[in-house]
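Example 3.2
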Amino acid sequence: MPRTPTGESVLARAVRVLAAFTADEPTLTVGEVARRSGLHVATASRLVAELVAHGLLERGPDRRVRVGVRLWELAARASPTVSLRDAAMPFLEDVHAVVGHHVQLGVLDGEDVLFLERLSARDAVVNFSRIAGRLALPTSSSGLVLLAHAPLDLQERVLARPLHPVSPAGFGSAAQLRTALAEVRRTQAAVLAGHQHPDATGVAVPVRDGRGEVVAALSVIVPNDGRGATLVPLLSATARGISRALRTPAA
């Protein structure tokens, strides 16, 4: 891989360009790409042009740039997330039909929960997650489930850092978070009322693979009316169904 005078590979710089785009700001000017990626404008412009030529980025009539369809096509082949999503989708649809609000499937990625799928409804309660979006692990029910079953070194890293709750109901201290993680491991569920928004409750359970390892979190976002915990049996049964589907040869 050719390297620049700074020692960084061209591929590494191209990744920095792609990482400049976010779900909230999917289109950028070349200057904005340069600033976010930390690259010189000329370098960013050259890399953007090459990525556009390969279909990984697209340039609109206004000269603003966005992620291209080719990149989406390649990302859609990602494994094991494809098999996990495919195995879970029929179950997500069943839960959605019962709950009528948001139903989500999230996986651990770094120190975030990354959402692979979300089913919603027109009048569903407020929800800040989105497909291919991320939330910090301690701030959501899905993240709490994944963190509770994550390697111990990851748990301790998160617990050692300042927490940044997004609402007054969120975890403000490591002691609170540690207690909550223990409770999740005991009950195999997380019920967080008002942690993302005062009007919403997140309820999540772990999804396990054939070896019993937690590979995802299944969650619903429902109104904060005190009834969230009543959905745990439904989610637990659904998670077991997804786990059985993951053990089949097709999955």
